[in-house]
Amino acid sequence: MILLSWNCQGLGSPCTVHALGELLRTHKPSLVFLAETKCKKNRIETLKRKFDLFGCCVESQGHSGGLALLWHKSLSVQLQSFGHHHIDATVYPESETEAWRFTGFYGFADVACRQRSWDLLSTLKNQSRRAWLIAGDFNEILDDSEKRGGRPRPLWQVRRFREALVSIDVYDLGFEGDPFTWCNRHPEPDTIFERLDRACADSEWRHKFPNTVVRHIPTTSSDHVVLSIDTENNHKPARPKHRPFRSRRVGHHPLTANK
User: Is residue 29 part of a domain?
Assistant: First the structure.
């Protein structure tokens, strides 16, 4: 199974819709999470018909925000909860015993509200005991190696994100590709790169899908790359190339899983 997660930065542009269509055609994902759709429900309904998908959405607030979770008609998905910063669902690939949980996540962009992101993760943790995958734009980095250019991220800010992942017992799944997922696209020397988008999972989900690889797919229609989460990885060796927290621990808890 392939899942895509993308901060598309608006589905009103024909260029972005075309890029989405190309992603669907090329990668044939079973599940797609979109953040910052910047559109209302009727726009998502139009795209569902255009691409022959099922799905649900959270409407944008004015010209910002908006989420969508879309899935192939061969997949059974049950919505559990949603808000302006998440969509939580149970995925039933074949049977009830195979069911697992997916949360599409969009962290608060305002630093003053960032703790609300981590509080939301804690709340979601307590709502289900199924194997859990979380993917999206967390709007935060785990280490100073995940940022290039601009001012250094305050240590307390990074630490709180790390502690949030520890508290919900999930692991960063690593990635293949470019080390950063977002760029401000400013000319040098003002260019900033950060790894804001990631996929994380608990031990049960990792055990269920041990060969999973996350790939960063570049796109010209958004400042963010697309995350491709391949649970079968039939094409390349299973170990992602980048596991920045293989040996680093917070509170004796590894943030990145070792396979």
Answer: yes
Number of domains, the chain:
1
CATH number of the domain that residue 82 is part of: 3.60.10.10
List the domain range (segments joined by +) for residue 98: 2-254
Is the distance from CB of 106 to CB of 82 less than 8 angstroms?
A: no
Residue type (1 letter), 166: V
Any domain includes 259: no
- What count of other Cβ atoms lies within 10 Å of the Cβ of residue 157? 13
Query: pLDDT (tens digit, 9 = 90+) per residue, 103-146?
Result: 999 999 999 999 999 999 999 999 999 999 999 999 999 999 99
The predicted pLDDT at position 250 comes to 40
Whether the model clears a pTM of 0.85, i.e. scores above it, the answer is yes
Distance CA 196, CA 183 (A): 10
Cα 115 to Cα 68: distance, rounded to the nearest angstrom: 23
Instruction: Give the C-alpha separation, 136 to 104, whole Å.
Output: 6
Tell whether 127 is covered by a domain. Answer: yes
